[in-house]
Write a structure and sequence with these properties.
Elements: E1 4-5, E2 8-11, E3 18-23, E4 26-28, H1 31-44, E5 53-57, E6 63-68, H2 77-91, E7 96-99, H3 102-105, H4 110-122, E8 124-125, E9 140-143, H5 149-169, H6 177-188, E10 194-198, H7 200-206, H8 209-215, E11 223-230, E12 240-244, E13 246-250, H9 270-284, E14 290-300, E15 312-314, E16 320-322, H10 330-345, E17 350-354, H11 360-364, E18 369-372, H12 376-388, E19 393-395, E20 413-414, H13 429-440, E21 445-449, E22 455-456, E23 466-467, H14 472-482
Parallel strand pairs: 2-9, 3-6, 7-9, 12-14, 12-17, 13-14, 16-20, 17-21, 18-19
Antiparallel strand pairs: 1-8, 3-4, 5-6, 10-11, 11-14, 15-16, 18-21, 22-23
The structure holds ligand BES, manganese (II) ion and zinc ion.
């Protein structure tokens, strides 16, 4: 079972070291502590660089920890500060720390962000180690708020993100498609989400030739997992379908990946994890929207039964696909996912989320996900949601004059883009988007390429190195923007 731990947040007033914050000349501390803290900070010659802290013992033996946080020019400063709180708690090996009330600290509503930051930065996958990692132990952050819903609110926002991260970091031998599907069902069904799973026999009957072809080279059976959130039951229709790439491992197939980086390919279900996380957030807050997540889950591996380069396969839509490269598998399973969304749900909007191309990182690095759509209004709402959620998107071209990228001499569509400069560039993110567009049948649709943003090698305001859960917060926010009733 995939599980994770984070810092506990509890209401209480037990004696424990007290946390206060410093930013430049500003001290966020209760009045009773302010003067002493100011003089102690001054005499210690503290250079308040964000992330540093000062561990002080007062005259009566009470402990005060001053944590330096970013200035107000940093848009996500209090979520980042939550990370600094986690660092201090862990470095000082505190079993508990106490946070004064927001009103006393003078941070107002920012407490919500701070607590979310604590839970997001406190996240750690429960790994299968025989011996516990030294210095790793449970810590509790005690909050002095009257409002006991505060901790719950922070968990409601952070848990789906952390669950998505845990799935992404879980190795592919433990998180097979069947396990992923079962865990999604176990997490979402109790929240009132209707979850269905289609296995190989059902996919065969359906004619999901794309998913079946990609899955053919693996012992692990594929699943098509569907999670429906009907928060607006008075309406018959579906506001959106989120389709997520759910490759639990991507070896490349017969076009086997070279050595560097192949171990990272357990992360190739990051889009699927994100759309399921978004559904969890919608369900937890009972959002008044009807949205379905559709996740083709499978493993792209190398075997005598693997699909081959040069094969022509028939997709669920009936369009034939010229498989020029078995490593361009994501678009093939997404094609069936998008078709399933259209056939079964007739959604007003389709958004797919996928770790689709390594090349997106060459331009957008880990900082922006690529956004592809020919619908300007949809581009605007997604970009706005991304900015608000601190999961930024950058739009790249998707125009009719580039249709040639996915033309094939033998089938309706090729899964490999036309070569670019000196034969380079066959892994073009634009070609990936162009391929999926063919299956969206002119509907309102957008594609998010999260190959760069799904995994962080650096720290951000939302997390440390590792899986990011990118997309959960963005899609949750977008659901409100897109469906104002
Ligand atoms: N899952 C990969 C994308 C990927 C590659 C993400 C490297 C992160 C790092 C995807 O299935 C893939 O293999 N894409 C190919 C596409 C190409 C064969 C057209 C790629 O990016 O090289
Ligand atoms: Mn691949
Ligand atoms: Zn892949």
């Amino acid at each position: 079972m995939t599980s994770w731990t984070s810092i506990e947040i509890a209401t209480g007033a037990e004696a424990a070291p007290t946390l206060v914050f410093a930013s430049g000349e500003t001290l966020f501390a209760p009045d009773a502590l302010r003067d002493r803290a100011t003089s102690l900070v001054g005499s210690a010659g503290f250079d308040a660089k964000p992330g540093r802290w000062l561990d002080l013992v007062g005259e009566a033996g009470e402990r005060l920890i001053v944590i330096a946080v970013a200035g107000d020019d940093n848009a996500d400063r209090w979520r980042s500060a939550g990370g600094h709180v986690v660092d201090a708690i862990r470095a000082l090996q505190l079993k508990a720390a106490r946070l004064p009330a927001a009103a006393d600290l003078g941070i107002g509503d920012a407490l919500d962000d701070l607590l979310e930051g604590v839970l997001l930065h406190g996240y750690r996958l429960d790994q299968g180690r025989r011996d516990p990692v030294p210095g790793q132990f449970a810590s509790t952050l005690l909050i002095a708020e009257e409002d006991s819903g505060l901790a719950d609110r922070a968990r409601l926002r952070a848990d789906p993100v952390n669950r998505a991260r845990a799935w992404v970091e879980q190795p592919a031998n433990l998180l097979t498609p069947a396990v992923f599907a079962d865990e999604a069902e176990a997490a979402l069904a109790p929240l009132g989400v209707t979850v269905r799973q289609l296995g190989p026999a059902e996919l065969e009957t359906l004619g999901a030739g794309g998913i079946l072809a990609v899955a053919a080279g693996s012992e692990n059976e594929p699943r098509l997992t569907i999670a429906e959130w009907r928060g607006a039951p008075e309406s018959e229709s579906w506001d959106a379908a989120f389709v997520g790439k759910g490759l639990t491992f991507d070896a490349g197939g017969l076009n086997l990946k070279p050595r560097p980086g192949i171990a990272k390919m357990k992360f190739d279900m990051g889009g699927g994890a994100a759309v399921l996380g978004a559904i969890e957030r919608l369900a937890l807050r009972k959002a008044p929207v009807n949205i379905v997540a559709i996740v083709p889950m499978c493993e792209n591996n190398i075997d005598g039964k693997s699909y081959r380069p040069g094969d022509v396969i028939t997709s669920l839509a009936g369009l034939t696909i010229d498989v020029q490269d078995t490593d361009a598998e994501g678009r093939i399973v997404l094609a069936d996912g998008v078709t399933y969304a259209i056939n079964e749900y007739d959604p007003a909007v389709i958004v797919d989320v996928a770790t689709l191309t390594g090349m997106i990182m060459g331009v957008l690095h880990e900082d922006f996900a690529g956004l592809f759509t020919s619908d300007d209004a949809l581009a605007a709402s997604l970009t706005e949601a991304g900015a608000a959620a601190h999961e930024p998107l950058w739009r790249l071209p998707l125009v009719a004059s580039m249709d040639y990228l996915v033309e094939s001499p033998v089938a309706d569509v090729s899964n490999l883009g036309a070569p670019g400069w000196f034969g380079m560039g066959t892994g073009s993110p634009v070609a990936g988007a162009k391929f999926i567009e063919k299956f969206a049948k002119g509907r309102r649709w957008a594609h998010l390429d999260i190959a760069g943003t799904g995994w962080a090698s650096r720290r951000s305001s939302r997390c440390g190195p590792g899986a990011t859960g990118f997309g959960v917060a963005l899609l949750d926010r977008w659901a409100d923007l897109a469906t104002e009733r």
